[in-house]
């Protein structure tokens, strides 16, 4: 089915490509990072440099794709409310993309420190390891900040889905709930980081709203009604 006939399915397939994001967000930290041990973490990064570089590439790819996803969703919903659709593109496309690209610098710095380039010979290895861990922590803090936009963009998207009449209304409600869940995660990470994992586990079901929305678009698609043309 062509994008003209079913723009929702096109948006869904582009959305599906964002599933590469957990490679850097979840898999690589679980595989390479050792909590509280800078030396072991730096050694793991140096020993699995290719995997870590894939994580950097995943962030760059995700930062690019969020723009295409936001534009595809704008095309789908602009007839519902153009102002809300523009807000969705800004909060869900432009601003998160900038954060993704900026955050790559933290990983690039951590990788250089872990590899121990010649120009870093002025630093002892424990110092380089500690600095690498610092940049990894900064990367995480940038993710915590980005979660604000991950949540805020779901509010106009949820409103658009709810008011669209060509998508089930429960998806719009679930997206708004998902937005509050991301905001809860972000502010917990900023203000009460010791409870970040607990809050994440509690609100996990709410975070499935975005996945449900994506799967609906991929499987069922969505086609806005054609506006009546005056005779």
Give unreliable regions as ranges: none
The succession of helices and strands, N to C, reads HHHHHHHHHH
Largest sheet: none
Structure classification: mainly alpha
Number of helices: 10
What's the N-to-C terminus distance? 29 Å
Q: Give the proportion of residues in helices.
A: over 70%
What's the gyration radius in Å? 20 Å
Number of strands: 0
- From the spread of the alpha carbons, the general shape counts as elongated
Give me the secondary-structure topology.
Layout lengths: L6 H10 L5 H11 L5 H10 L1 H29 L4 H34 L9 H28 L1 H11 L4 H23 L4 H7 L5 H12 L12
Helix pairs in contact: 1-4, 1-10, 2-4, 3-5, 3-6, 4-5, 5-6, 5-7, 6-8, 7-8, 8-10
Descriptive keywords:
single chain; mainly alpha
Task: Report what the structure shows.
With 231 residues, this protein is mostly helical. 76% of the residues lie in helices and 0% in strands. The protein has 10 helices and no strands. The protein has helices at residues 7-16, 22-32, 38-47, 49-77, 82-115, 125-152, 154-164, 169-191, 196-202, 208-219. The longest helix is centred in the middle third of the chain and has 34 residues, at 82-115. The model has no long low-confidence stretch (mean pLDDT 92).
């Amino acid at each position: 089915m062509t994008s003209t006939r079913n723009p929702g399915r096109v948006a869904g397939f582009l959305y599906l490509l964002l599933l590469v994001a957990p490679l850097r967000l979840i898999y690589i930290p679980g595989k390479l990072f050792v909590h509280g041990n800078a030396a072991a973490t730096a050694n793991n990064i140096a020993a699995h440099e290719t995997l870590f570089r894939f994580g950097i590439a995943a962030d760059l790819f995700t930062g690019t794709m969020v723009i295409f996803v936001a534009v595809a969703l704008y095309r789908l919903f602009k007839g519902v409310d153009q102002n809300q659709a523009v807000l969705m593109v800004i909060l869900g496309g432009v601003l998160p993309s900038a954060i993704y690209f900026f955050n790559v610098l933290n990983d690039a710095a951590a990788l250089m420190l872990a590899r121990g380039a010649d120009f870093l010979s002025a630093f002892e290895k424990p110092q380089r390891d500690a600095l690498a861990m610092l940049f990894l922590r900064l990367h995480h803090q940038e993710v915590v900040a980005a979660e604000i936009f991950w949540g805020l963009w779901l509010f106009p998207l949820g409103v658009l889905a709810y008011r669209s009449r060509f998508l089930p209304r429960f998806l719009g409600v679930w997206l708004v709930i998902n937005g509050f869940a991301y905001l809860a995660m972000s502010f917990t990470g900023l203000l009460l980081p010791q409870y970040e994992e607990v809050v994440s586990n509690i609100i996990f079901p709410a975070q499935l709203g975005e996945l449900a929305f994506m799967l609906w678009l991929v499987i069922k698609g969505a086609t806005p009604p054609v506006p009546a043309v005056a005779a």
